[in-house]
């Protein structure tokens, strides 16, 4: 595009951002994507969760003539987005199985008459011949294919219906198509482009950094106590606690309720009605904690989730990143907190090994788990390690033209457990050799408990039975406690030196990687397990930079604003954050706007929301005027 036109397009996009969405600036990457779509190009957009992908198609939807068709696999997400858009005065609708025949006819008519800005559809719905024919006759502004990684058979979210979406290429040749996702390595990105048949797409690969999320991983000692201590710091805040089993979600939620938290369980085995009710309370009410299996979260775009806690290991780094990505989408401080121990390592491995996946699939899952374990045990900045994992791979051909890639040389971030409280490390080579020799001497046949007993020279029936007190390694590790040996073993497993063979009840076995270590050709740096120090944790937490804090003098206004928001949200049957985000309410407290003009200048206040809500909030602010 010639420069003056680009300038005009930019101005138009910025205008829409301001008047409709009430935001002053685009987030990194958004403007470039929008320009490409407005120029009619296909796009591949990879942005971290919370990065603001939706705006990348919503703004062009409002600028390009016709209706933007958004393909999303998640019905709950569709409903939320449409509700939020309508609040902004945008003509948006969705078609899915929950829509009555009557409404459908209505939507079809609006579409034909060009009165819809955005139409959300599930892929299977879009691919019905009837839908395609309706779209043939309509004026389609663009196709946005959300969660585009679902097209990848290698990915963890493969959906058969996505494979059919390539029909759009020939059926709507003049319409730009956007593929958007938050999780896709280089191979998946290429797969998306090929399978969707994007034409010379502009590629935008944004960094994965979520600077407002603080990552911390703790060694599990007493899971319940640890969780309660962590939750004490987050009293009254909305959050998600992930567990592996359904039963555990129930017991954990009960324990949290006993401790005074508004906690609810969520898992696939619950009656549908209860599940929907709990999810609804999480979205609608203030400060609800959901204790869930990983069944929960796909399509939850509640922006003010203040923490995601894992009391069990996730399946992979990707899964972990996706699950923790649900925290802090509003850009405010949020915690990603996890505890794990040796037991979990063995258990998750067992789940993989005994699963029904093919041998090849299991191999992939095992190696993903190993990577995750390695990450748990890092001794340098956790964020840097995470970014390296996602950013390390070379960009595939043609990707250099888009927005710049994630920073490569990640500096220590200052906002993870390791940066805030660096673990002590020690040279664990000799101990590792002792432990591994003991595994070999006992025939690579026993689990952690027995091997450690032999190391420590314990006289147990099992030792007697196998005459392991006669071994050269019997008692060579008596100077170290069992807990420390378990820590060492966990790190050896995480480092890929030792395997816990699930098929043989957790029997320990050495890997190829163990050899050079055993022969003393390499050394091994290990970390001392930090003993939880709550005082230290608390002071670290206090020192974080949260931006504007509500002072005691402002407390009354803050609460009144929240109250007002809750009423308005109830009246409109939307979650409170759809009315205004916390950040906007904080601005109201800070700036105390006295007029509509002053209010529309506040971040997050667009024209439609001004018309709808200004009076109510101005009244609250006036009622809390500061005495002069
Ligand atoms: P994603 O789909 O990438 O996870 P969303 O599109 O849901 O992220 O955006 C996350 C949050 O950021 C939303 O609440 C959205 O309103 C907000 N947001 C997006 N773009 C901007 C912007 N330019 N300025 C301020 N807030 C924004
Ligand atoms: Zn760090």
Continuous helix count: 29
Query: What class, by secondary structure content?
Result: alpha/beta
- Terminal Cα span: 56 Å
Oligomer: single chain
What would you call the shape? globular
Each distinct ligand: adenosine-5'-diphosphate, zinc ion
Average pLDDT taken over every residue: 86
Instruction: Quote the beta fraction.
Output: 5-15%
Kindly state the percentage of residues in helix: 40-55%
Sequence stretches where pLDDT stays below 50 over 5 or more residues? 392-409, 531-546
* Main beta sheet: 7 strands, parallel
Read across the widest sheet, the strand sequence of neighbours is 3-4-2-5-6-1-7
Quick rundown:
The protein has 628 residues and is an alpha/beta fold. The longest helix has 19 residues, at 3-21. Residues 381-383, 412-413, 416, 418-419 line the site of zinc ion.
């Amino acid at each position: 595009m010639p420069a003056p036109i680009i300038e005009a397009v930019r101005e138009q996009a910025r205008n829409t951002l301001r008047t409709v969405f009430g935001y002053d600036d685009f987030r990194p990457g958004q403007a470039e994507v929008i320009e490409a779509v407005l120029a009619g190009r296909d796009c591949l957009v990879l942005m971290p969760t919370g990065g603001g992908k939706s705006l990348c198609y919503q703004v062009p939807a409002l600028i390009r003539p016709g209706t933007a068709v958004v393909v999303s696999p998640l019905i709950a997400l569709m409903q939320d987005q449409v509700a939020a858009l309508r609040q902004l005065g945008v003509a948006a609708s969705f078609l899915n199985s929950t829509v009555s025949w009557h409404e459908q006819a209505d939507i079809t008519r609006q579409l034909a008459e060009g009165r819809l800005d955005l139409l959300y559809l599930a892929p299977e719905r879009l691919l019905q011949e009837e839908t395609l024919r309706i779209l043939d006759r309509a004026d389609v502004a663009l196709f946005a294919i959300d969660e585009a990684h679902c097209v990848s058979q290698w990915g963890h979210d493969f959906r058969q219906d996505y494979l059919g979406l390539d029909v759009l290429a020939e059926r709507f040749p003049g319409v730009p198509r956007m593929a958007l996702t938050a999780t896709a390595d280089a191979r998946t990105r290429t797969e998306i482009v090929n399978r969707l048949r994007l034409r010379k797409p502009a590629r935008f690969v944004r960094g994965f950094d979520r600077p407002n999320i603080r990552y911390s991983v703790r060694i599990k000692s007493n899971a319940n106590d640890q969780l309660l201590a962590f939750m004490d710091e987050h009293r009254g805040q909305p959050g998600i606690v992930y567990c592996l089993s359904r039963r555990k979600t129930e017991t954990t939620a009960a324990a949290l309720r006993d401790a005074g938290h508004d906690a609810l369980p969520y898992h696939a085995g619950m009656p549908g009605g209860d599940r929907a009710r709990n999810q609804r309370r999480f979205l609608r009410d203030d400060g609800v904690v959901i204790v869930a299996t990983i069944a929960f979260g796909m399509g939850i775009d509640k922006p003010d989730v203040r923490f995601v806690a894992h009391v069990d290991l996730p399946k992979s780094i990707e899964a972990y990143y996706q699950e923790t990505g649900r925290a802090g989408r509003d850009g405010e401080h949020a915690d990603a907190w996890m505890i794990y121990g040796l037991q979990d390592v063995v258990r998750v491995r067992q789940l993989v090994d005994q699963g029904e996946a093919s041998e090849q699939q299991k191999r992939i899952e095992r190696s993903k788990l190993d990577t995750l374990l390695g990450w748990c045990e890092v001794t340098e900045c956790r964020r840097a390690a995470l970014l390296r994992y996602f950013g390390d791979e070379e960009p595939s051909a043609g990707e250099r033209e888009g927005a710049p890639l994630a920073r490569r040389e990640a500096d220590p971030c200052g906002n993870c457990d390791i940066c805030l409280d660096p673990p002590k490390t020690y040279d664990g080579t000799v101990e590792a050799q002792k432990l591994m020799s003991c595994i070999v001497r006992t025939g690579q046949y026993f689990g952690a408990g027995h091997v450690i007993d032999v190391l420590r020279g314990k006289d147990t029936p099992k030792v007697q039975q196998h005459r392991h007190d006669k071994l050269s390694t019997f008692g060579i590790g008596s100077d170290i406690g069992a807990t420390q040996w378990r820590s060492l073993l966990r790190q050896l497993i995480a480092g890929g030196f030792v395997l816990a063979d699930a098929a043989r009840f957790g029997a320990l076995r050495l890997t190829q990687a163990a050899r050079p270590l055993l022969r003393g050709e390499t050394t091994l740096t290990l970390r001392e397990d930090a003993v939880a120090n709550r005082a230290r944790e608390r002071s670290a937490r206090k020192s974080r930079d949260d931006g504007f804090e509500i002072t005691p003098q402002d407390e009354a206004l803050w609460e009144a604003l929240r109250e007002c928001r809750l009423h308005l949200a109830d009246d409109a049957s939307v979650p409170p954050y759809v009315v205004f985000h916390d950040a906007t309410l904080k601005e109201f407290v800070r700036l105390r706007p006295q007029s509509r003009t002053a209010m529309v200048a506040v971040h997050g206040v667009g024209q439609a929301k001004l018309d709808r809500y200004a009076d109510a909030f101005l009244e609250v602010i006036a009622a809390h005027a500061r005495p002069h």
